[in-house]
Design a protein that fits this description.
Blueprint (H helix, E strand, L loop, with lengths): L20 E6 L2 E6 L1 H18 L6 H5 L12 H15 L8 E4 L6 H14 L4 E5 H8 L7 H13 L2 E5 L4 H4 L6 H14 L4 E5 L6 H5 L2 H14 L2 E3 L9 H4 L8
Parallel strand pairs: 3-6, 3-7, 4-5, 5-6
Antiparallel strand pairs: 1-2
The structure holds zinc ion (ZN).
Length: about 260
C-alpha cells in the first residue's frame, strides 16, 4: 500500500524538532502541540488504511486519478459527470439508497471508475467495501466449512457499509455461481436495498437484462432491473482505453537504422 508522505506546513515546518508539531510556551514550560496539517494527514492516512482493508487499490495513480480529467475518450463524459454529481451528493448526505450498474466491455475503465467512486467516498468519511462477485458469493453463503463468527462479521460489514461495490457481477465465467447460491445472493440484495435502504454499485460486462440468460434466475433479474429502473441507475460505458502504440515500444534503435 502507498503511504502519503507527510509534508509540514509553513507554521510547523521549523517550529520544533518534530515535524507536524508546534512548540508552545505555557507558564514557563515548553509543550508540543499537534499542528492542524498533521491531524489532517493522520486522519487521511487512517481512512486510506481502511480503504486498503476494504479491497481498494491504494497507489499514487489511484489517489491522483480524477474521474473527468483522467478519462480517455469523449462518449462517456456526460455519464461521468452524472457519476461525479452522485458522489458529491452522497458526500453531502444524499443518494445512500441509490443503486448503480456500471455496464461495459472489459476495456471501458469501469473498474477504475468504481474504485474511484468508493475511494472518494472513503476519503470523505464514509464506509465502502469492494468485492468481486466470486469472493462475495463464496464468503456470503454459509457452509459447513465457514467459521460462523467470521461469516457473521463479513455479512454484517457488507450489510452495514455506506456503499457496497460488487465487481464482475453476474458474470458466469468469472464468478462460478451455482444455482443453490442464487437465493442467498438475492436475499442479501433485498435485505440491504429494501430493508436497510442502502445502495449497491454493480460493475459488469453482463447486461442486467441478461442475468436470467446466464444465471437462470428470473427472479434475480426482475429484482435488479426493477431497482435500476427506480434509481435510473444503469450506466452503459462505451469509451475504450487508448491503445498503446506498439511500434514506439519495440523500436529501441529508433527510425530506420
Ligand atoms: Zn502544520
Amino acid at each position: 500500500m502507498y503511504l502519503i508522505p507527510f509534508k509540514p506546513c509553513s507554521l510547523c515546518k521549523d517550529s520544533s524538532s518534530q515535524p507536524g508539531f508546534l512548540k508552545i510556551e505555557d507558564q514557563g514550560s515548553i509543550l508540543l502541540k499537534e499542528c492542524e496539517c498533521h491531524k489532517k494527514w493522520y486522519e487521511n492516512s487512517k481512512r486510506l488504511m481502511s480503504a486498503y482493508r476494504s479491497n481498494f487499490i491504494i497507489s499514487k495513480d489511484s489517489l491522483e486519478y480524477d474521474l473527468i480529467k483522467s478519462h480517455k475518450g469523449s462518449k462517456d463524459l456526460k455519464k461521468l459527470e452524472i457519476l461525479n454529481k452522485y458522489v458529491i451528493e452522497f458526500s453531502e448526505g444524499g443518494n445512500k439508497e441509490l443503486c448503480i450498474y456500471l455496464l461495459g466491455n472489459s476495456n471501458t475503465q469501469k473498474t477504475t471508475i468504481a474504485q474511484w467512486i468508493g475511494l472518494t467516498l472513503i476519503r470523505n468519511g464514509f464506509t465502502c467495501y469492494y468485492e468481486s462477485m466470486h469472493n462475495f458469493i463464496t464468503r456470503l453463503v454459509p457452509t459447513d466449512f465457514n467459521d460462523p463468527e467470521r461469516f457473521k462479521i463479513y455479512h454484517d460489514k457488507l450489510l452495514s457499509c455506506d456503499l457496497l461495490i460488487i465487481d464482475d457481477a453476474f458474470d458466469r465465467w468469472k464468478s462460478n455461481i451455482s444455482s443453490f447460491q442464487l437465493p442467498y445472493m438475492e436475499a442479501f440484495f433485498r435485505e440491504r436495498i429494501e430493508r436497510h435502504q442502502k445502495g449497491i454499485l454493480w460493475v459488469s460486462c453482463v447486461s442486467p437484462y441478461d442475468i436470467k440468460k446466464y444465471l437462470s434466475s428470473e427472479s434475480l433479474q426482475n429484482f435488479v432491473v426493477k431497482i435500476l429502473t427506480k434509481s435510473k441507475g444503469l450506466v452503459k460505458l462505451v469509451d475504450s482505453m487508448e491503445h498503446i502504440d506498439v511500434s514506439t515500444i519495440f523500436d529501441p534503435i529508433g527510425g530506420d537504422a
